[in-house]
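As the next step, I needed to go through one protein, both as residues and as discrete backbone shape codes, included below for the reader:
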Amino acid sequence: MYRRIFENGKQTTALLFQCEARPERADREAIVRSALAHVFSPWDKELYRLTVNLPASNEMTIRILQRAGFDVMAKQVFMTRSLV
């Protein structure tokens, strides 16, 4: 799942929410790489490219993004407190 944001008719942002492939697929990494290439293209344009709420458990996608030069900007923490 992704979204492209346009301002004044020009794309400014490529925003990734989710990128996974079925775990049983032998070509899983190729699928994820292809999907990421599609989401973040065109590579020759200056765009703001980011992911939002990508689970840390999605290790393969994170590894591919890091190899492509992406860095962690922020992390979320899930906290609970018992009311009893």
In short: Residues 2-67 form one domain. The longest strand covers residues 10-16.
